[in-house]
């Protein structure tokens, strides 16, 4: 198969013609790397190069730097590429201070970075809103720099974003109980640019490529973590993977007109709960997790009155799932089955067998439907 004919996530992104960008997590990692290097050597690397989770090695120019005896600070301007990201152009800073040996790496929220105040997020209440993958990236780069200079790598990293509290008003952070600013995000370090027409066109091309290659089983995935899950579950080749992002409806409608034998839909529990509730566009700006809907599913699955009320009042979809898991109510399976039924309704009798897999942020399967 020629390079022009290849399918899968990378081919879809190339086909859109959109320029990818860097997450706040990647920017914070680059700023941390530069600041810690300067703290140890007296010099800031500029540009500073980091390694992303999938092996890419982007370089970032420094937009700010400060070095004293007690700390070093570096700043990176976020470039979101062609994505209309509210944090595009924001200055992400990392201030690094030495800690006693054995203290490890400690994260602090500086100005413009939020603090978690409610349960149901991937961080405990009271923690700075620096998500798990960016934390891991920063730890790894601190360890790498420390190893180069023969020191222990015990540091405090304070991440801040200029005007972040103001920018955060345009996000869901305040409603989720992340107060004081933005979250430092990213699972791959790369911002996949969003454009309705370009991305839906790339989905259609992905289906065409899969059919031309004789694939009888394809998977619509919301992101790279769900792609890994379906590859592990079914061993699907790259050209059978459709990066549907938030556009579940685009996949279903095109497969309705251009059927394959089997379609697996895989994604995060919260996103697929939106599909289960009848939303075909899963973007946070156009659909939200309906906790009342989840509560009704939980009730049908055996939840008592108290648990049903707790699910209805949960802060996030993840919190609702955790409540049900603790009580032995299979909310993940119920959501997956409801999402499968919604997909079948959109397919309108097309000869396609559908199954749905719900995962958590770590890629663990938390719910699945039977094929139908």
Descriptive report:
A five-stranded mixed beta sheet has the order 4-5-6-10-7. Strands 15-14-16-17-18 form a five-stranded mixed beta sheet, sandwiched between helices. It starts with 8 loop residues before the first helix and ends with a strand. The protein is globular and about 70 Å long. It is α/β, with parallel strands linked by helices and 372 residues long. The protein has helices at 9-16, 24-41, 132-148, 164-168, 173-176, 196-212, 224-234, 248-257, 269-276, 291-300, 305-312, 317-327, 331-347; strands spanning 21-22, 48-49, 59-60, 64-67, 71-77, 91-98, 105-109, 112-113, 115-116, 155-161, 178-179, 181-182, 190-191, 217-221, 241-243, 262-268, 353-359, 365-368. The chain is 39% helix and 20% strand.
Blueprint of the fold:
Blueprint (H helix, E strand, L loop, with lengths): L8 H8 L4 E2 L1 H18 L6 E2 L9 E2 L3 E4 L3 E7 L13 E8 L6 E5 L2 E2 L1 E2 L15 H17 L6 E7 L2 H5 L4 H4 L1 E2 L1 E2 L7 E2 L4 H17 L4 E5 L2 H11 L6 E3 L4 H10 L4 E7 H8 L14 H10 L4 H8 L4 H11 L3 H17 L5 E7 L5 E4 L4
Parallel strand pairs: 7-10, 8-12, 14-15, 14-16, 16-17
Antiparallel strand pairs: 1-13, 2-3, 4-5, 5-6, 6-10, 9-11, 17-18
């Amino acid at each position: 198969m020629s390079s022009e004919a290849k399918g899968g996530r990378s081919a879809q992104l190339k086909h859109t013609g959109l320029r990818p960008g860097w997450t706040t997590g990647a920017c914070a990692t680059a700023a941390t790397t530069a600041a810690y290097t300067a703290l140890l050597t007296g010099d800031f690397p500029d540009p500073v190069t980091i390694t992303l989770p999938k092996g890419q090695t982007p370089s970032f120019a420094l937009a700010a730097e400060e070095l004293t005896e007690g700390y070093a600070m570096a700043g990176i301007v976020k470039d979101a590429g062609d994505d209309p990201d509210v944090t595009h152009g924001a200055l992400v800073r990392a201030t690094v201070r030495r800690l006693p040996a054995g203290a490890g790496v400690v994260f602090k929220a500086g100005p413009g970075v939020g603090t978690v105040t409610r349960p149901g997020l991937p961080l405990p209440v009271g923690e700075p809103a620096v998500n798990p993958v960016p934390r891991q990236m920063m730890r790894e780069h601190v360890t790498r720099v420390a190893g180069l200079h023969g020191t222990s790598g015990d540091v405090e990293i304070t991440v801040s974003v200029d005007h972040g509290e103001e920018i955060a008003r345009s996000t869901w952070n305040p409603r989720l109980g992340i107060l004081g600013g933005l979250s430092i995000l990213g699972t791959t370090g790369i911002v996949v640019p969003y454009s309705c027409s370009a991305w839906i066109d790339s989905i259609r091309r992905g289906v065409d490529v899969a059919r031309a290659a004789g694939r009888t089983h394809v998977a619509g995935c919301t992101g790279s973590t769900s792609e890994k899950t379906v590859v592990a579950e079914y061993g699907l080749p790259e050209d059978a993977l459709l990066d549907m992002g938030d556009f579940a409806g685009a996949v279903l409608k095109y497969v309705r007109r251009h059927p394959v034998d089997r379609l697996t839909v895989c994604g995060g529990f919260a996103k697929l709960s939106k599909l289960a509730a009848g939303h075909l566009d899963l973007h946070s700006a156009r659909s939200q997790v309906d906790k009342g809907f989840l509560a009704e599913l939980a009730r049908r699955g055996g939840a008592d009155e108290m648990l049903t009320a707790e699910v209805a009042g949960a802060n996030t979809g993840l919190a609702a799932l955790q409540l049900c898991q603790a009580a032995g109510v299979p909310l993940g399976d119920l959501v997956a089955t409801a999402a499968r039924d919604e997909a079948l309704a959109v397919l309108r009798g097309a000869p396609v067998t559908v199954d749905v897999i719900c995962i958590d942020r770590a890629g663990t399967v938390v719910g699945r439907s039977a094929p139908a």
